[in-house]
């Protein structure tokens, strides 16, 4: 048997016996996996003007078109593009389409949870752009509008990108839109972490009412295959995005991935509301319940409006734990979180978990030095995937 396949099987077994609280991950349904593993995984398709440059694409084009249509419907957007192979690729497409060389953009600073890719050493440097910080209040998790206006006056950005990787609270979009209108700036929303919550109507439902474009990953709170989508109500913008796909940011769009996204989109269409509302409800109560023990979550009393709970590093100090050691300690107990102090509820919600007391308890007991690994394993073995297939 292949060495690699053996490792894959080991990985599968390992992850099936652990509780996954990683904020940027989710779990695929059997139907989505079927599409991912299908013959489409080794095919090409490329429509040029009125014909496909490849043969054998009789169904591929229909899958792509139907997935785009359904995506637009799920997000109540006029136009949807599903070919970007990741959230990062989608952000490249957006930057290339909306910015001129030497232009200025603004985004949430990395130290407050903004995406590292928008910091000056990464995408801005690649494309000859300059990024400036959007003034942000860490305590309230809100944009400081007054300071933002000042910053816009001095750096005249042509693009403002909202969205965070540490993402706890919605934005008040109306005044931000007004600033963008006043200073002639395009407003974009990188919803990578929250695309599933927006699809289910549980977070920032007004994103496309105020922003020119909404884009992001399809595999964080959106429970699809790894990939990216771009949504807009503006036909001209969508045409510009589409010009920056093939032969610029990518070539093959991975037809099996698009088919899998289509299946996940059907699942979202059928079950998204219930799923997304449970995700948010779960993280709110997890924040509260975890804080009743030794480990504290930030932003009491509201804790979170998303799938993420941010932990307070000071609450781990008396056990001499930083976020990395804390994560390693939890992993010994079969609980997986990232090494940055985020706890996510998207995947466990998909696995039907609603008892946040149990989860908070596992975490607090592990920190107190108890070995809960057997209990967690047993608990996980009783979980079952929810929110997929036909509605009941
Ligand atoms: C995860 C993330 C990305 C990158 O998405 P990929 O799908 O991993 O390429 C971009 N922006 C934000 C805000 C993210 O959190």
Task: Give the SSE map.
Layout: H1 3-16, E1 19-20, H2 30-36, E2 47-48, E3 51-52, H3 60-74, E4 79-81, H4 87-98, E5 104-107, H5 123-127, E6 130-133, E7 136-137, E8 142-143, H6 145-155, E9 159-162, H7 173-182, E10 186-190, H8 195-199, H9 207-210, E11 213-217, E12 228-232, H10 235-243, H11 255-291, E13 308-310, H12 314-317, H13 323-332, E14 335-336, E15 342-344, H14 346-350, H15 356-367, H16 373-381
Parallel strand pairs: 1-14, 5-6, 5-9, 9-10, 10-11
Antiparallel strand pairs: 2-3, 4-12, 7-8, 11-12, 13-15
Helix pairs in contact: 2-11, 3-11, 4-10, 11-15
Q: What would you note in describing this structure?
A:
With 392 residues, the chain is of the alpha/beta class. It has 2 domains: 3-28 and 273-381, Aspartate Aminotransferase, domain 1, CATH 3.90.1150; 30-266, Type I PLP-dependent aspartate aminotransferase-like (Major domain) (Aspartate Aminotransferase, domain 2, 3-Layer(aba) Sandwich), CATH 3.40.640.10. It contains 16 helices and 15 strands. It has helices at residues 3-16, 30-36, 60-74, 87-98, 123-127, 145-155, 173-182, 195-199, 207-210, 235-243, 255-291, 314-317, 323-332, 346-350, 356-367, 373-381, and strands spanning 19-20, 47-48, 51-52, 79-81, 104-107, 130-133, 136-137, 142-143, 159-162, 186-190, 213-217, 228-232, 308-310, 335-336, 342-344. A 7-stranded mixed β-sheet has the order 4-12-11-10-9-5-6, with helices on both faces. The chain has a two-stranded parallel ribbon with strand order 1-14. A two-stranded antiparallel sheet has the order 2-3. Helix 2 runs antiparallel to helix 11 (255-291) and helix 11 packs across helix 15. The protein is globular. The mean pLDDT is 97. Bound molecules: pyridoxal-5'-phosphate. The site of pyridoxal-5'-phosphate has 15 residues, from helix 4.
């Amino acid at each position: 048997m292949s060495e690699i396949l053996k490792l894959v099987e080991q990985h599968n077994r390992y992850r099936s016996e652990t509780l996954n609280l990683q904020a940027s991950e989710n779990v695929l349904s059997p139907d989505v996996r079927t599409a991912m593993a299908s013959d489409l995984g080794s095919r090409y398709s490329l429509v040029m003007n009125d014909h496909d440059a490849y043969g054998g694409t009789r169904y591929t084009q229909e899958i792509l078109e139907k997935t785009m249509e359904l995506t637009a419907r799920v997000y109540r957007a006029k136009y949807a593009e599903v070919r970007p192979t990741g959230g990062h690729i989608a952000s490249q497409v957006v930057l290339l389409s909306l910015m001129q060389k030497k232009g200025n953009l603004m985004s949430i600073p990395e130290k407050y949870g903004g995406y590292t890719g928008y910091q000056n050493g990464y995408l801005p440097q690649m494309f000859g752009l300059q990024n400036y910080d959007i003034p942000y209040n860490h305590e309230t998790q809100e944009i400081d509008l007054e300071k933002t206006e000042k910053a816009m006056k001095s750096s005249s950005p042509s693009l403002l990108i909202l969205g965070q990787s540490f993402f706890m609270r919605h934005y008040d979009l109306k005044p931000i839109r007004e600033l963008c209108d006043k200073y002639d700036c395009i407003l974009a929303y990188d919803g990578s972490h929250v695309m599933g919550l927006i699809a289910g109507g549980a977070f920032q439902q007004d994103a496309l009412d105020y922003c020119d474009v909404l884009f992001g990953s399809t595999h964080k709170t959106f429970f699809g295959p790894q990939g990216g989508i771009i949504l807009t109500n503006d036909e001209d913008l969508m045409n510009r995005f589409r010009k920056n796909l093939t032969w610029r940011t990518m070539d093959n769009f991975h037809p099996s991935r698009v088919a899998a996204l289509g299946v996940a989109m059907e699942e979202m269409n059928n079950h998204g509301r219930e799923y997304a509302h449970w995700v948010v409800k779960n993280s709110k109560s997890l924040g509260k319940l975890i804080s009743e023990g030794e480990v504290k979550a930030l932003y009491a009393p509201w804790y979170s409006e998303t799938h993420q709970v941010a932990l307070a590093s000071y609450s781990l100090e008396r056990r001499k734990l930083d976020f990395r050691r804390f994560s390693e300690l939890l992993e010994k107990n079969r609980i997986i979180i990232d090494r940055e102090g985020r706890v996510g509820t998207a995947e466990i919600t998909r696995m039907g978990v609603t008892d946040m007391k149990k989860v908070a308890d596992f975490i607090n007991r592990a920190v107190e030095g108890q070995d809960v690994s057997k209990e967690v394993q047993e608990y996980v073995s009783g979980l079952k995937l929810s929110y997929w297939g036909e509605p009941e």
